[in-house]
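User: Here's a chain of 456 residues. Predict its fold as C-alpha cells.
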Amino acid sequence: MLDSIKKIFSGDADETVSTTGKPDISREKSAALYAKAKTFFPGGVNSPVRAFKSVYGTPLFIEKGDGCYLWDADGNQFIDFCCSWGPLILGHNHSKVREKVIEVMQHGMSFGAPTALENELAELILKNNKFIKKLRFVSSGTEAVMSAIRLARGYTKRDKILKFEGCYHGHSDSLLVKAGSGLVTFGETSSAGVPKSFADETIVVALNDKAALQKAFDEFKDQVAAVIIEPIPANNGLLLQEKAFLQFLREICTQNGALLIFDEVISGFRIGFEGAAGHYQVKPDIITYGKIIGGGLPVGAYGSSAEIMGNISPEGAVYQAGTLSGNPVAMAAGIAQLSELLKTGFYRDLHNKTEEFAEAIQRYASAKNYIFKVFSIGSIFWFAFTDQEAIRRADEIDPASMDKFKMLHRELINRGVYLGPSGYEVGFISSAHTKIDLEKAKRAIFESLDVVFRGK
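Assistant: Prediction complete.
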C-alpha cells in the first residue's frame, strides 16, 4: 500500500480506484507511452509540468483535439480548459486556422527569408494596438523576453533588471531567479546551470509592494535598465494587480530612466486585442507576446516604439536573430486566428461566458461554505482553496492547499474535465466552449468539490 501511494505521488501510479470519488479512468495506453518516453526524455517529457508530478496518476498522452475537446490515447474525452496553456482561444483545430495553414504549407514550410505573410501579420497587429509601433517576430515567449531584456540593456546602457517574485518570464538565465530573504534582494538562482553572476544582475521584489520597489531604485540608482512584470501574473496562480500599482510602476520607471516591460505572453490578445496594456490603459516601453499570435504554432514577438526598436540589428547595435523567426506556416496561423479575434463582439462574448462560468462555480462553493475562490479576468480563471478575497502575491498562496487541488484534478479527470496538472496554473475558456459544454463542466466541478470537501 505504501509503495502504491509513493507511486501516485511520484506521478507513476498504477491504475487505481479513487476511494472517495469516481473510479479512475483507464490510462493503460498513456502509461505505456509514458514508460517508453522515459527512455528517451528526461522525466519522460519535453516540458516539466507535463510529468504530472503535482497531481495523481501518469500523464495523459493526447491524440487529438477538436473544438473544446481533447481525446487521449485510451480514448477518454475531456472538456479542455488548458487550451495548450492559453493560445487556443478559438479552441482546437479551428477551421479557419487549419485551412490557412494548409494553404500556405503547400508552397513550402520554411525559407529563412522574408515573406509577405510577415508583413500581413505585423500590419494586423500594429494597426490595432496603439502601444507598439514596430515589432520583431521570434519563435517563443522565452525568446521574446530574452530579446526584450537585451534591448532594454542596450538602449539604457545599464545592466540590472528588476523582476517580481511570482512572475515567470521563461527560462532564460537572468530571469530564472527567485527572491531570498529581506525586503529587496538580489536573485538566487533557482535552476542549476545558472551562474551566480547572472542572477546578481537581477533584483527581485515582492508584487504589490511600492515600498520595496522604491527602496530598490534608491539602492541601485541609475543601474536599473528595466522593470519586467506580468501585468496579469498568471504563471503562479492568478495574482491580479490593482491598476494603481501598475501606474506606480510606470511612474517610477519614468522617474528613474528605466524601461517598463510588460510580459504579455499569456495576457496578450487573450484579455483583449491590446492585452493588459489596453485593459489597464498603462503604457509600457516594451511588450512581449507569444502563444496566441501563433494560432497554436510556436511564435513570439516583442514590440516597442520605433525609436527603441531602432536599436535592434541590423538597424542598431543590439543583436538578435532567428532562422525560424517569421516562419510562414506560423504567420499563416496567426493571421487566421487574430482576424477572428478582431470580429465585433468577440471579446465581449468570451468574457461574458467566462464571467458567468466563474460566478456560477463561486455561488455553488459559497452556498456550501467551501473554502474556495474562483479568480478570473477576461477569459482566464484560477481555482484557489482559500477564503481570501484577493491574492496579489506569491507568498499569499498556501502551499498546503495544493493537496486539495490534487484531489480536485483527479476527480475532474475522472469526470471528463481537463485542467493543467498543477494548482498554480490557470485555466482558459475558448470561443469553442458552448453553454452546453460549460454546463457539463460545472456539474463535474460541483461534484468534484463535494468529494474534496466532504469525502463523498
